[in-house]
Design goal:
Acetylcholine Binding Protein, Chain: A, binds 2-acetamido-2-deoxy-beta-D-glucopyranose, GABA-A receptor activity, 9 helices, alpha+beta, 450 residues, eight-stranded mixed β-sheet, Gamma-aminobutyric acid receptor subunit pi, Methane Monooxygenase Hydroxylase, Chain G, domain 1
Length: 450
């Protein structure tokens, strides 16, 4: 029966070039067909420019969607491209025919029927697939219900907030509105509420996973009136694992690498500068690489930028730490030498024989220390403190003249001197990891849970 009807309708289209006036002689040969009254009733006097229930209430149009795929979710263009099956159903009392079956009509006959003027307000580009024929379907039920399905691919705008990138969650919408018919003419509804949308659960996306979705009914208000609107909201959560492997782990390792410098003797200048500069440069490269996939023109600071900034600060801090430690060591040595000069001068003028012997041994020892790079740090520090203690013991015996010289030179250098420069390294060994740990805890707490 449906096949016959199909043939009839197709013939009708072919012979009358879309006008479908049924006044020609072609119908006479079908006059014995029992279906003829149905066809006549279907198409005779049908005005496709008038909506169903023209003088009555609004047409109720039920919608449901199948999301076949969501391809490109683009942060640069702030949009996504989706292929959807859109199904609309409404009741057209002019199309009622006897029986309880349905007829699937050729998609080209759509042009003979009234169809809703649904559009996607946020779409930038969209097209109806037409291989091998236009992908649309019309099914007319005997009670007048029309089912109209389409396969559309659309690029739809989605405003993204990237401040938490890559720990972000984007909420995108798919909106359906009526172009010309306002709420007095057409009413939209989801056929099965939240279940009207299928396919989102099983979707596999490259960078995201669909966290949740729901549907809502609202209305669009324009200057020309109020229009029916259906909205599908869906939340996408980015899979952060890729970024952890790609960016976070390497930058953490770089920071740890920069700490290695604290365990290397201060006297090995090339080794420590090399570590410092190399880590700074690698970090810079890493920061550049992390930026390429995102819009650079945007002035917002993303979570990944914050983290790379933190790592860069720590690495830079390690380099600066060495600069400071080295500077103070050199300064300390100079001050020690100054002390000795002063002491020697003082003692020579006093004519005391015991001090010069002590003085001669000490500088030799210090010089030897600073020239051997392989000397363990601990030993160096020990010697240093021992020297101080020894010097102090001796000096306390020298009387008021010597102590005044000593205090004067101490005071002069006090503002810029650290008591023991090797302590800078020793404290850094705990301070840097602890600080990094604290900053990390704060960072991850803020971006994952706030
Ligand atoms: C509707 O179709 C069913 C079979 O699908 C048939 O049994 C039933 O008699 C039909 N009803 C009418 C009113 O034609
Ligand atoms: C029309 O018939 C179809 C198929 O039998 C059914 O799903 C639909 O609910 C019916 N519509 C009305 C308004 O009765
Ligand atoms: C659809 O889901 C949303 C969010 O979960 C909920 O608020 C709403 O009540 C649901 N609607 C229906 C019709 O179930």
């Amino acid at each position: 029966m449906s096949a016959l009807l199909h043939t009839l309708l197709t013939l009708c289209l072919t012979f009358t070039q879309g006008g479908c006036t049924y006044s020609g002689n072609h119908w006479d040969e079908w006059s014995d067909s029992q279906l003829q009254p149905t066809i006549q009733k279907l198409m005779k006097g049908y005005n496709r420019y008038l909506r169903p229930n023209f003088n009555e209430g609004p047409v109720e149009i039920g919608m449901s969607l199948d999301i076949a795929s969501i391809d490109a979710i683009s942060e640069i263009n702030m949009d996504y491209t989706a292929t959807i099956f859109l199904r609309q159903r409404w009741r057209d009392s002019r199309l009622v025919f006897p029986g309880n079956e349905s007829v699937s009509v050729d998609g080209r006959l759509v042009s003979l029927l009234w169809i809703p003027d649904t559009f996607i307000p946020d779409s930038k580009r969209s097209f109806l697939h037409d291989v091998t024929v236009e992908n649309r379907l019309i099914r007319i039920f005997s009670n007048g219900t029309v089912l109209y399905a389409l396969r559309i691919t659309a690029t739809i705008a989605c405003n993204m907030d990237l401040t938490k990138y890559p720990m972000d969650r984007q909420v995108c919408t798919l909106q359906l509105e009526s172009w010309g018919y306002n709420l007095q003419d057409v009413v939209f509804y989801w056929t099965r509420g939240n279940d009207s949308v299928k396919g989102l659960d099983i979707l596999r996306l490259a960078q995201y996973s669909v966290e949740s979705y729901y549907t809502s009914v609202s209305e669009a208000v324009y200057e020309t009136g109020q229009y029916p609107k259906l909205v599908l909201h869906f939340a996408l959560r980015r899979n952060v694992l890729f970024f952890i492997l790609e960016t976070y782990v390497p930058s953490i390792l770089l920071v740890v690498l920069s700490w290695v410098s604290f365990w290397i003797s201060q006297s090995s200048v090339p080794a420590r500068t090399c570590i410092g500069v190399t880590t700074v440069l690698t970090m810079t490269t890493l920061m550049m690489g992390a930026r390429t996939s995102l819009p650079n023109a945007n002035c917002f600071i993303k979570a990944i930028d914050v983290y790379l900034g933190i790592c860069f600060t720590f690495i830079f801090g390690a380099l600066v730490e060495y600069a400071c430690a080295h500077f103070y060591t050199m300064q300390n040595q100079t001050i020690e030498e100054l002390h000795r000069e002063l002491l020697r001068d003082f003692n020579e003028s006093n004519g005391n024989g015991s001090i010069p012997i002590f003085r001669y041994t000490q500088p030799k020892h210090t010089v030897q220390m600073s020239s051997t790079a392989e000397e363990p740090l601990e030993q160096a520090a020990d010697c240093d403190t021992r020297n101080h203690a020894g010097a102090r013991e001796k000096l306390s015996d020298q009387g008021c003249g010597l102590s005044s010289v000593r205090s004067a030179s101490r005071r002069a250098a006090a503002a810029f001197t650290v008591e023991n420069p090797h302590n800078i390294d020793r404290h850094s060994r705990t301070a840097f990891p602890m600080a990094f740990l604290c900053v990390n805890i704060l960072y991850w707490l803020y971006y994952l849970f706030l």
